[in-house]
């Protein structure tokens, strides 16, 4: 029997450590002599600091320092225009740089003391006086300030139009127009951001919560003028991040600053309130106009989006581009603009842009289907895109039809009656909606190292991260399978800049990127073992062809003659080799990338029950059928999709960071007022992975599952709400006041 781990529902290899508490998160690291920092957040949205009175804090025994812009200077940061790996174009925020306040909640001081409690208390004694300036934080009121979104941020591509959408729209038989508004959202991972920095003998060791240890290493090196080799960032476990850990957060700067200045280890964490001060999913306004001919063929798609950003960076995400690839249509007009406001720069949040754009286009498609009196699923199939019309390229694979078919079947879509308000159960109006989702299948260059020891144990490492997505587990599976080892003999390590370079964990690209590197390096080890097998005199394979050698469960044997075999351990012993070490790099195939479009897809079906009197919407069933290439682990992959669907429900019905424009501040900055679903809000969720074979996208045939699960959910729910009630709610979240 051949060892086989890829495609199997292997339980999380880090599960035991996580549930027993032995997994250490960044705030769990304790060091001898450690100090604690507490950050003072500014209270105005814009202006200048006139003075900071730190005397009360400094007079307390056990308080070592209060860092402010007045006593922090001379960092190389101030002369280098450094950008982190996920920075948009513009000029990144520099903590404690000067007296300027550019957003509400901006960190203005760091109090460092012997205990956390003392630091927190001392922080309450720091008095800051400000000179306030006029500010504006309202996207709707500043639309006249919009400007074209510049390129330059990782993954951002300007939208491309084609044909003549205006003319086609004017002449079409059926049409719809709609405006869509999305509120801001904050990531709110369970684990708060925290950093412990240790400065010892000219070397800095930092435990940090991050989605990219190397990004933090470069950032710290550049900001503080340290050689990269003297900065080590360690981040073995991350308690959720969703994009909030893609950029270095300001507690990292603060902890390192204090450790360098005070020459003692320093820990700095953010409070839950402060988790609302470093980036969010932006408020957006969208306009959609679609038209179709009498047979239901799309004649034109016009999609424009306006998004808020800060005044110092142009945060961009792909919102409207999907509307040009999702459906077959010759006339497409797309536009995406930004509006700079007095707030912190938005930051990528799970399926950035796609989730926003998909809700609008999928809502609009539903609306036009009603105009045409066509079933919304049949309307989508009628306009199915067999190739990427934007880039004029075929897809490397696209099993979206199977998603529609298998999802519809599981959901029972054919039993749907077409008219709004046509299905009910007492005073519960029942609605069924469908939506489509698409996401890029990226691959970035990554490195991995393999170390096979004489005891038959393999350690593979790469400086990636596991934000709860299952990286540890799938990489262990890939390594075990690639080298034909038992999975219990394989350990995968990550989250350390001493390990080979890996990209940020984001964009659903880790399985493909780091997975390819792990596979590649294990194949290099395999080659070495084969060579050893045919070159070692006492080996049963001596002087034979290495082509016939197969690996299974730590045994090397002949494919034609299984009696001819030797264990890896014995082979290394007779060859007199104690260990085999290999490091290798894998990256995307540029020719394939040029010739094909790589997308994952999903079809989402949702059922809602709406209380006719109260307008309360409950999502009673969701079926999410996903085509994402090879599914490495159906158990962890299903969890990714479940999490995405739950968040989609949250986005559709509950989640919103409310800005008080009078103060320029998010008001519900806590988990009691920032609504997310509780267990009772979540009912049946079915996840289907349709078969999708793809030999082009990357060596593993994987497309990633981190984001595709959330993308179509809000659209499907909004469409179900219309089907139930006859009310088209275009602004998220769909709260009961909008339904009634
Ligand atoms: Mo994801 S928003 O790329 O962490």
From TrEMBL:
GO MF annotation terms: iron ion binding; oxidoreductase activity
InterPro entries: Ald_Oxase/Xan_DH_a/b (IPR000674), Ald_Oxase/Xan_DH_a/b_sf (IPR036856), Ald_Oxase/xanthine_DH-like (IPR016208), AldOxase/xan_DH_MoCoBD1 (IPR008274), AldOxase/xan_DH_MoCoBD2 (IPR046867), AldOxase/xan_DH_Mopterin-bd_sf (IPR037165)
Residues in Aldehyde oxidase/xanthine dehydrogenase a/b hammerhead domain copies: 20-134
SUPFAM superfamilies in alphabetical order: CO dehydrogenase molybdoprotein N-domain-like, Molybdenum cofactor-binding domain
Matching Pfam families: Ald_Xan_dh_C (PF01315), MoCoBD_1 (PF02738), MoCoBD_2 (PF20256)
Name the UniProt record assigns to this protein: Xanthine dehydrogenase YagR molybdenum-binding subunit
Organism: Dyadobacter psychrophilus
């Amino acid at each position: 029997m051949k060892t086989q781990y890829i495609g199997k529902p292997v339980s999380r290899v880090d599960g035991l450590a996580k549930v027993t508490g032995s997994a250490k998160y960044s705030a769990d690291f304790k060091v001898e002599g450690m100090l604690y920092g507490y950050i003072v957040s500014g209270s105005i949205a814009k202006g200048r600091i006139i003075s900071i009175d730190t005397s009360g804090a400094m007079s307390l025994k056990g308080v070592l320092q209060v860092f402010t812009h007045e006593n922090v200077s001379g960092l190389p940061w101030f002369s280098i225009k450094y950008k982190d790996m996920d920075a948009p174009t513009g000029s990144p925020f520099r903590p404690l740089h000067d007296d300027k306040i550019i957003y509400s909640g901006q960190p203005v001081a760091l109090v460092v003391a012997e205990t956390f409690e003392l630091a927190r208390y001392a922080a309450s004694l720091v008095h800051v006086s400000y000179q306030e300036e006029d500010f504006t934080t309202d996207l709707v009121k500043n639309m006249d300030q919009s400007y074209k979104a510049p390129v330059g941020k990782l993954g951002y591509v300007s939208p491309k139009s084609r044909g003549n959408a205006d003319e086609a729209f004017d002449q079409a038989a059926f049409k719809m127009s709609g405006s869509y508004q999305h509120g801001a959202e904050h990531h709110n991972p369970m684990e708060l951001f925290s950093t412990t920095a240790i400065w010892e003998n000219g070397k800095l060791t930092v435990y940090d919560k991050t989605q990219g240890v190397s990004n933090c290493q470069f950032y710290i090196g550049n900001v503080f003028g340290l050689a990269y080799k003297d900065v080590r960032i360690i981040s073995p476990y991350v308690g959720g991040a969703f994009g909030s850990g893609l950029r270095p957060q300001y507690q990292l700067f603060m902890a390192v600053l204090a450790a360098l200045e005070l020459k003692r280890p320093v820990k700095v964490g953010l409070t839950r309130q402060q988790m609302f001060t470093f980036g969010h999913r932006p408020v957006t306004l969208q306009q959609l106009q679609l038209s179709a001919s009498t047979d239901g063929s799309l004649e034109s798609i016009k999609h424009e989006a306006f998004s808020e950003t800060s005044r110092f960076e142009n945060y961009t995400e792909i919102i409207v581009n999907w509307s040009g690839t999702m459906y077959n249509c010759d006339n497409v007009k797309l536009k995406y603009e930004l509006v700079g406001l007095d707030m912190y720069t938005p930051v990528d949040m799970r399926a950035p842009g796609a989730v926003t754009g998909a809700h609008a286009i999928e809502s609009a498609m539903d609306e036009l289907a009603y105009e045409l009196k066509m079933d919304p699923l049949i309307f989508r199939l009628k306009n199915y895109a067999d190739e990427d019309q934007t880039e004029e390229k075929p897809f490397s694979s696209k099993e979206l039809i199977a998603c529609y078919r298998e999802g519809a079947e599981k959901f029972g879509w054919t039993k749907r009656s077409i008219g709004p308000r046509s299905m009910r159960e007492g005073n519960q109006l029942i609605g069924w909606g469908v939506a489509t989702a698409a996401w890029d299948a990226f691959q970035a260059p990554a490195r991995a190292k393999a170390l096979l020891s004489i005891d038959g144990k393999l350690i593979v490492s790469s400086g990636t991260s596991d934000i709860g997505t299952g990286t540890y587990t799938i990489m262990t599976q890939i390594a075990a399978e690639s080298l034909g080892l038992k999975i219990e003999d394989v350990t995968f390590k990550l989250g350390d800049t001493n390990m080979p370079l890996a990209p940020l964990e984001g964009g659903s690209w880790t399985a493909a990127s780091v997975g390819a590197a792990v596979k590649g390096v294990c194949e290099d080890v395999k080659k070495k073992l084969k060579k050893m097998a045919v070159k070692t005199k006492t080996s049963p394979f001596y002087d034979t062809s290495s082509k016939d050698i197969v690996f299974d469960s730590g045994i090397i044997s002949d494919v034609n003659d299984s009696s001819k075999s030797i264990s890896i351990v014995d082979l290394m012993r007779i060859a007199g080799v104690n260990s085999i070490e290999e490091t290798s790099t894998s990256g995307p195939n540029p020719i394939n990338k040029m010739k094909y479009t790589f997308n994952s897809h999903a079809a989402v079906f949702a059922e809602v029950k709406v209380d006719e009197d109260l307008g309360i919407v409950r999502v009673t069933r969701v079926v999410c059928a996903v085509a994402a290439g090879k599914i490495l682990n159906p158990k962890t992959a299903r969890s990714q999709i479940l999490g995405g669907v739950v968040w989609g429900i949250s986005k559709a019905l509950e989640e919103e960071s409310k800005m008080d424009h009078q103060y320029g501040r998010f008001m519900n900055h806590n988990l009691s007022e920032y609504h997310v679903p509780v267990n009772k809000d979540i009912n049946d969720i079915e996840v289907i992975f349709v078969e999708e074979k793809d030999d082009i996208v990357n060596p593993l045939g994987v497309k990633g599952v981190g984001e595709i699960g959330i993308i179509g959910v809000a659209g499907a729910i909004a469409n179900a709400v219309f089907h139930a009630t006859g009310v088209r709610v275009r602004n998220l979240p769909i709260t009961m006041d909008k339904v009634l």
